[in-house]
# Entry
Amino acid sequence: MNDSFKPRKLLMAAYLLPSFFTYLFIFILPSIMSIILSFFKFSSIKAFRFIGFQNYLMLLKDSNIWLALKNNLFLVFTCMIGQIGIAFVLSCLLNSRLTYLSTPLRTIIYFPVTLSAVVIGYVWKFVFDYNYGLITYFCNFVGKEEWIRPWLSDGNTIMWFICIPMIWQYVGFHIVIMMSAMSSIDPSIYEMAEIDGATGFQKATKITLPLIKSTLFVCVWLCISANMKAFDHILSMTNGGPGMSSNVLSLYAYTVAFRNSNMGYGSAVSVFILAITSLLFALSQIVKNAIAEKE
Amino acid sequence: MKKMIHIPAILLCLAMLTGVTACGGSGGQSSSAAPSAPESSAPAPSAEDEHEPVTISILHEHTAEAASNIVSSYGFVEMIKKYKEEHPWVTLEEEIIVDSGDKLFALAASDDLPSVFGNRYGWLPNFAGNGLAADITDYVDPSMYVDDLYCMTYEGRIYGLPNKYSIFNLVLYNEAMWKEAGYETFPTKIEDLIKANEYFEIKGIDTMALGNSGKWFATSLLTAGLTYENCGDEWVESMIARDGTNEWTHEGFVKSLADLQALTPIFNEDCNMQDDVWAMGWYMQGKAASHVVGNWGLDTARNMSGESPEVWANTRVALMPTISGEPNIMSSAVGGNSQSVNSKLKGAEFTAALELVEQICSPDYAELLASRGATAPVRIEVNFDAFEQPYKDFAAILNSHGTGMNITDYVDSSVANALHAAAQNVMTGASTPEAAAADVQAAQSMLLM
# Structure
């Protein structure tokens, strides 16, 4: 091969170095340090004491961890159904030739993705306000005052109200991914299906869904990782309350590490988050492989 | 031609690398000599050091906006101005960061603390225990301060001076509304408060506004006082001292949580969703007959009085009622914003920094705050006769009631957070008082692991 077409390795390395160093110092090294710190009692600024697996034993006995994990899993599964489910339906609608103004609609739906999660949290806190919120106003408007509750004060239903803004914000994100996958489907397949009398629902479930399956799994993985590290929405809406009922693992790790000055235990919680997320990824991969084998 | 493209590209890469690896500014770097041994006292200042030009630094939270709205911030900023006027040979570098706790810990971990920095009782094991705060025991007089400097004492030595004195369990109440309900004065018994709720409920008014979204309000404003009454001084002091003789599952503390749960119907239904400022606004709009708040609430109410002059004109101040009807103690905390000196400083720098701390936490500061109807931790005669009735009521309470420690300000932050969660859980019915107390004890036990 002509040497002039071969990229020089030194040049390639030079271009890759900034990104590599960024990734190394911002992601890789802190993750490694976090794992190492989780084996230390590091509750004051300077004093480190190696304590082996004590932080992890404490974690297993900590009821707040299991409550936070339950909340995280609730978020993952509810948002998976909400975000990906609604995104799929909307993507099919927006991709249909019968839908007018699909491009501006797609922009409008995507707009919340660009907003800060803290802003979303505060805005929805106003929506759920007991006295002056939109929901309260609507209930009064339709004459159903008995439906009005302090929505964010009820520990039994709080997680549903946390899911709503999270689903609302990220539907657009998944739509963009799905629509780019749908754009690679040959339109003649849909035309042939229409000739055969397929309905919209049949086209979506029998044609679109199977053909964008791998993209859907990407969406599932993104959903899992995003909801396992959910933090900003909960902090701004409820601060993990009332009590600990809307607490999630990342918020608990932050509270333990920075508010309680127990960095070692906070690191252990972070490692726990990593472990659970990896487990969920592995489970989804097993499901994906099982579906592929079935076919 | 290829080289002309490659050279700018390589330069761009280098520029990106430099940007990625560049560190932030040190801001407020304390100038220091060799680090001193942790247990040794700082050297005594000499006369010739006093006017040696020095540069010291301070990290604090009191922005210009805070100073225009909050009396204690105003006092803090004025004391710094006064210090600068009286110490022309000192160059003072100020770094102002709201909620600077995380920054402070990061600076401490990197041995880069400013000359003067904020401290509090719960941080003493970190700053005093690790030899980062200077031992100033030999330079200060504890009797000048309302708590004899308990808030800044660690293992018998003093590591700072307090700058805040907060009373937590005050009630601002609308005298006209309560007279209509048949109460000439604010109830002194909790059961009367609960009974009054029946009247106000019919009127569609909340008996008491509470903003507990920050979680700590219910604990500091309510549970702390109940705990003193149900458990006694000795129990509270032993829990703060963490001497192991008592536990949070004590029947008195469980009863305190049960009493808090029984009180919950008197509050606005969304008390756990709203913050303290909202709750004050709710009271000032006449939607609540009273509002439980700390002493800072008087200034907040006065600031809102322009929109609600009638409510302000009818506002009086009392202490939160007790179960027995006996006078309540003032649930107080000293030193939430204490100031400490960097232990690395010596000679003229140490003198300058110590004098800055003394100025910020001085009788001058207390007098300035008293002139604005606020409290300070320095012992002075408080006379609010020149102020409106709520301030006079507050002064009468200050001068006539005993003081107890607001327990959550003196326990480890992990236990304090567990207390806040326990209070919210019993208020929402998510937990029983027994289970909530057990959760707090579990948090305490984790500290010992």
Chain B touches chain A at residues 6, 9-10, 13, 16-17, 20-21, 101-102, 105, 108-109, 125-127, 129-130, 132, 213-215, 269-273, 412-414, 417, 421-422, 424-425, 427-428, 430-431, 439, 442, 446, 449 (CB under 8 Å). The domain at 47-165+335-370 of chain B is CATH 3.40.190.10 (D-Maltodextrin-Binding Protein; domain 2).
